Amino acid sequence: MNKKDIIICRCEDVTLQQIHDLLDQGYQSFEDLKRLLRVGMGPCQANTCGHLIQKEISQYFNLKIEDVPIHKVRPMTMGVLLKMIAEDQKNEK
Amino acid sequence: MKSNILIIGAGISGVSIAYNLAKKGVKDIHVIDRGYFTNGATGRCGAGVRQQWATESNCILAKMSIDFFEHAKEILEYDGDLEFKQEGYLILATTKEEHEQFAKNVLLQNKLGIPSKQLTKEQALKIVPHLNPDAFMSATFCQTDGHLNPFKMTEAYYLAAKKLGVHFSFYEEVLNIKTENKKIVEVITNKQTYQVSKVVNAAGGYAKEIGDMVGIDIPVYSENHEILATEPIEKIQGPMVMSFSKNIYCQQVPHGAFLMGRGNPNALKNHDVESSWQFLDDMAKTVVDIMPLIGNLRVIRQWGGSYNMSLDRQPIISDTDQLEGFYMACGFSGHGFMFAPMTGLLLSEIILKEETTVDMTSLSMNRFNNEDIKSIEKSVV
Prior knowledge:
heterodimer; A: 93 residues; mainly alpha; two-stranded antiparallel sheet; 8% strand; B: 381 residues; alpha/beta; 8-stranded mixed β-sheet; 6-stranded mixed β-sheet
C-alpha cells in the first residue's frame, strides 16, 4: 500500500509518508513530529497515533520499542466543556 | 571542535540570530539545544504577534518584527505555511485607569507608526460580537497584529540558516564554559568540547544558569505561564482578545482551535512547566465571563511554559563589559517569539560591531546599573 494512503493520525489526517519525510530530514522523536505535523494534538491526544508512531520510530532507527519514548501525556484525559469547569466550581467548598 | 560562534538555544531567538549572522557571511556557526525541536518557550507560546505595547522600545521591536513577518515566507524561501494572519489584537479596558492608560499607549504607538486605535464598546462588539458587553468599558485594536505559527516560523529560520551552512545539534546540553582573562576559551557539552571565543546565550528559561557558568549575574528569572487549547471549530473569531486586568489572552488559530492563557500572580521563580487544575478553573471562569459563547467548547489539552522575566519586562539584547565575546538575548518576559526578527538582526549587528538599526540603550545589560529603571512595561499577561 502507498504510504501516502496510510493515515497514522486520524484526528489531523497525517499520513505515514509525512512521518517518514520528517524522519528522513533528521527529526528523531514523537515530540518533533508533533510540533510540525500536529500528530497527537487532536481530540484523541495521541491515543491512536502514539503507539503507531513509536513503532515507526523504533523500526526507522533500529531501536528496541521500549527505548523509544512515548509522547508527553497532558491533561485533559477527555474533552470537557469550559462552561462546566467554570460553573461546577461554584459548588465546591 | 573549533567553532567561530556557538549559540546556546535553538528556539526562535537562537535560530534568528544564527540566520542573521550567516546571512552576513559569518562561517562556522554552531547552534545547540538541550532538547527536541522547539522544546522550550517558543514551542509553548500563545502564537500571538502584537505591536500594542506601552514602552517605546517594545513598540519599535514589535513593529519592525511585524514588517519582517509580512515577507518572511519569501525572504526565508520557506515551502510550508507560516499561518500568518493579521486580524488584529483587541485589547479590552475594564477600568477607567486602564482606559486612560490605553489612550496614552495609542498615542505612543501611533507616533511610532503603529496603526492602533481606541474603540468604544459598540465598535469592539462589531469586531467580536460574542464579547460580554458588561465585562469591559472600551478597547484598543490594531489590525496588523495577529497570529503566526511558532513551530513553522522556527522551522523557516532553521532551514534557511542550515542552507547558509549553520550547524545544528539537538539533545546537546552545555555543562561548563571555560574562561581565561575575561575571554571565553571553551564550551563543554554532554557531547563534545568547542574551542570558541564567542558565545550567544539564547537559552530562554535557562538564560540565568548559562550566565552563572561564566560568573555573570543576569537579572532574569523564569516562571510558569499556563495555556490551554480547545477542539477546533469553524471560524468565529478574527482577532486575539486580551485583557491585562482580567488576566487573559484568547485567540482562534487558523487551524480552528482556541488557545487561551493567563499568568499566575503567585507563580514561583523556577523552571516548572507543568499543568495545574487551579489554572483550568481560573481560565474557564475568566473566558466564560468575557466571552460566554466560548464556554461551549471542550478543552482538549493544557500545558505550561517559562516566561524568562526581566526587571522591566523588556528584553536584554546585549554584550557585556564583564566578558569579551559573551552575548545575551534573554529576559523577553513572554514575548521573545514576536520580537525574534529584531533580536536576530540587532544581536548580529552587536556581534559584528556594526552600527545598530535602533538605539540599544534600553535593551542593554547596563541599564540595570541605574538605581531606578526608567520605564517598566505593564502590558504583559
